[in-house]
Amino acid sequence: MAFNKVCLVGGNGNLGTILLNGLVAAGDFTVTVAKRASSKSTPGAGSSVEQITIPDDMNLAGLTDALRGQDVVIASFPLVDVNQHLRLVEAAALAGVKRFIPADFGSCDAASPNARRLLKLYRDKDLVRHKCEEIAAANPAFSWTALVCGHFFDFGFHDGLLHFDLENKTADILDDGSVRASASTLRRVAEGTVAALRRPEPTRNRTLYIQSFCRSQPEVLAALERVTGVTWTRRTIDSKAFLEEASRKLAAKYDKHTMEEIVFVLGALEADWTKEEGFAMELLGLEDEDLDQVVAEVVAGLGK
After folding, report:
1. Topology of 5-148+186-209 in CATH?
2. What is the DSSP letter of 279?
3. For the chain, N or C: smaller number of CB within 10 Å?
4. Are 263 and 271 in contact (CB under 8 A)?
């Protein structure tokens, strides 16, 4: 089995843009972007990318009609409304799609009891993954692949998620800093996605774990100091107290920043994919990226 037609739902976001570029650059696929009817964005404009229109409310009938003829559907839009993602899985199966890739990606694993306990986001991701499993069990023509990549390393510097402040040269280190965690650049997520689609059978109905590297926070800090030529200020954070405080705030009132603070901790302390049965770097033909090189790219990009 080989995949030809790949449809990306959410092609203009931070990850979606990189996924789109990676799929097009691979040269293996006819790439389509699904746009909501009211959207004014033009992802892939001027390239060979095709476009289809899906209903704003993402109703099942409209999605099913729009997705007919596609071999693969990739969800790369935020998991704000889990029902939209659940309908997208169902519509893909009804439309005859062969492979579905849910919006799993980063920073944590939806299989983690701690992530599900603390955040609705990962309970929702788990629901979507179970929906994929349920439909695949009943419909052998349908399959899924979930890609889990840890923190988006390069983007995590831009939005502050990783707690490395390039402007002020400060770094927040959790506890003694001894824990290593897998993280991925956005391009690595695209590379992993393309590699998985090029290997339909060994990636069928599996959760795959990928990374750019697996390093501790002090190792990342040391790379930053080498690249910037400056000694940074290191601040130590008690992860248990930090999580308890953030959880109290989130329980009192939902706030995206507070939610991301919890994600920051979980993605730094519970994301060593090298220990997972589904660690797929060798399977996908991927090798770790060079930490110093990636950090240099990040620093140069933030300096623009």
Report:
1. Rossmann fold (3.40.50)
2. B
3. C
4. no
